[in-house]
Amino acid sequence: MRPRRWVSVLVCAAAASAAVTACGSGGASQTADGRTELTIATFNEFGYEGLFSEYEAAHPDIKITQRKTGQGGPHHQNLFTKLGAGSGLADVEAVEEGYLSQVMAKASQFNDLKEIGPKDLSTNRWLDWKTAAATTRDGKLIGYGTDIGPLAMCYRKDLFDKAGLPSDPEAVKALFATWESYFAAGEQFTARSGGVAWFDNAAQIFNAMHNQHEVGYFDKSDNLVVETNPDIRKDWDAVTSAVAKGQSAKLVAFSPEWNTGFKTGAFATKTCPSWMLGVIESQAGPENKGKWAVTDAFPDGGGNWGGSYLTVPRQGKNTTKAAELAAWLTAPEQQIKAFQAKGTFPSQVDALKSPALLEQTNPYFGDVKAGALFAAQAGKVAAAQYKGPADGQLQENVFSPALQSVEQGKNAGEAWLTAVEGAEKAAK
After folding, report:
1. Among 427, 428, 406, which Cα is nearest to 415's?
2. Which N-terminal residues, if any, form the signal peptide (predicted)?
3. Quick one: pLDDT at residue 71?
4. Are domains 29-149+306-358 and 150-304+385-426 of this chain identical in fold?
């Protein structure tokens, strides 16, 4: 899932701010000049700072207070802790797609945005699969979609050239047509690369493969199907076989060593959601400008990695106004502005057709029209895989560590049994 940061707790105390005269359990309050204060808790970069000022200018009765945090883990731990306590949440809470299944399991504690949101708002605003993932079985809409992470493939052109592989973005598409062709190209590359790996780590590849399937770790009745879903074992065998052949750099995602790997050229390909372009540029540095390229191809079709939602917890005192703010922030016009500010890729149909998106270029990647490329990739995602309540735990705490153990020398068959056992425990 997409990396996020920590969330701070807004303390209601007279000494903290002379402007605040009252503070409720849901975060709604009145300022000294009589405006309604709405709190919104986000993480990482949503690109909303300029939008808040714009909204306040158009709604002089509203004061917006942002609780901006970093990594998603602590933010969501805070969210679930305060859900259990029954107080302390912001009026609008952002939820990343990796934690959405846990929120959907607690849907009764969130407002149905079809009920309290603007009546003229149509869910056709978003890509169908984005809305479907935040809709309960009985039709309640728990979150308004913000960004998405359509998948393409990034690669090092110079390393491909040295290994005798095609390096032009059109020519490489055949290498990335299927997972079979991807791993076959990896064999060719590692045989000629002088020790450079084909991909960064097994878990990143496995998760991308896994998320393409209609059925994942759980079926739609929340039954664990790790052992009975043949696609999961097939993916496991393919990835661990590639590890055994030396295709993995064995670098834990988002670790210091992984970050350095971009700069030193430790691996040649990277599963690449739209937001990954910024990660690559920042970690690989200016000295590698022009060496990285991105192509509008991904093995076995499209996929999505990342993206969030804005929810309105029932704890809030001003839920209708909170829903109005969330609806406005997720309108196509605002999502284009957020994209221009921080690169968050829109999930709204009209935004994906906007010239401001389609004409956007990325000079680090050879002036590729990245907006148009990822808009095309977004159109290849047919549906969002159903996620059971413990899905995120299985990905982060079970399968990723099990795959890391294979990279460290553990037998793949034994590691699979460990993963199955861990999945059964996590699903209880």
Report:
1. 406
2. 1-22
3. 66
4. yes
Pairing of strands 36-43, 92-96: parallel
- What residue ranges do the domains of the chain occupy? 29-149+306-358, 150-304+385-426
For residue 109, how far is the Cα from the chain centroid?
23
Give 293's strand partners: 155
CA–CA dist 102, 110 (Å, integer): 12
Rama region for 27: left / alpha / beta (φ>0; ψ in -120 to 50; rest): left
Taking the model in full, what pTM does it have?
A: 0.86
CA distance linking residue 333 with residue 345, whole number of Å: 13
- In words, the CATH class of domain 29-149+306-358 is alpha beta
At the fourth CATH level, the homologous superfamily of domain 150-304+385-426 is Periplasmic binding protein-like II (3.40.190.10)
Are the CB atoms for 66 and 49 separated by under 8 Å? Answer: yes
Using a 10 angstrom Cβ sphere, with 0-12 exposed, 13-18 middle and 19 or more buried, the burial of residue 106 is: middle
Which band of pLDDT confidence, cut at 50, 70 and 90, is reported for residue 131?
very high
Q: How far is C-alpha 81 from the chain's CA centre?
A: 22
How does residue 70 score in pLDDT terms, banded at 50, 70 and 90? low
